[in-house]
Amino acid sequence: DTGVSQNPRHKITKRGQNVTFRCDPISEHNRLYWYRQTLGQGPEFLTYFQNEAQLEKSRLLSDRFSAERPKGSFSTLEIQRTEQGDSAMYLCASSSDLTGGETQYFGPGTRLLVL
Amino acid sequence: KQEVTQIPAALSVPEGENLVLNCSFTDSAIYNLQWFRQDPGKGLTSLLLIQSSQREQTSGRLNASLDKSSGRSTLYIAASQPGDSATYLCAVTLFGNEKLTFGTGTRLTIIP
Q1: Distance in Å, alpha carbon of B28 to nearest chain A alpha carbon
Q2: Is the pLDDT of residue A2 over 80?
Q3: B89-104: pLDDT as tens digits
Q4: Exposure letters B63-95 (e unless 16+ CB within 10 A, then b)
Q5: How far does the CA of residue A45 sit from the closest CA of chain B (Å)?
Q6: A58/B contact by beta carbon, under 8 A
Q7: Nearest CB neighbour to A104, from listed B34, B41, B51
Q8: Eight-class DSSP state of A78
């Protein structure tokens, strides 16, 4: 078990470009979450998957954002037409509802800078 | 809407001291509460999870307590070490809602 992994770890892009991030959860975890964290703040929830189904989306997730988890394993988060306000750390977490407790385990994050 | 507050925003203590970090939440109908540690520029490391039916959890030098009725949790760190320096975040989930709602964290510095 290697924990939650995220790629890339850092991304610098120009305003208006599209970016895609990947998250690989802990292998037996059926739940996957995306959060966004700006400097000096706690993470804010973006969206949540149970297996391949996207069950909840935050109002923070504008129509420029889309997330998928096509086979219930890894997930991607795409931001279209990036804006400077999208600059943040994007965190992925996973958990299992099969073992009880439902601790969410976080990946190292992808830091996005939009110039 | 659930709001989570952590006070103080920053705390410095000499090595070896015991310390308490505070977390308060506005909606007492929580399902569970988690404490995390975050090192600068890094992801979050889960420290302790307390279910709503529990009063406390312990792991090594860490002890977390939960008082649902007053909307408060504390994280007690015994015999602090310089390696404990980090930002500590608490987060709650509500029944029927899987998302974590975070506080803004307490930045802890242990002075050698």
Answers
A1: 18
A2: no
A3: 999 998 878 899 999 9
A4: bbbbebeebbbbbebeebeeebbbbbbbbbbbe
A5: 6
A6: yes
A7: B34
A8: E
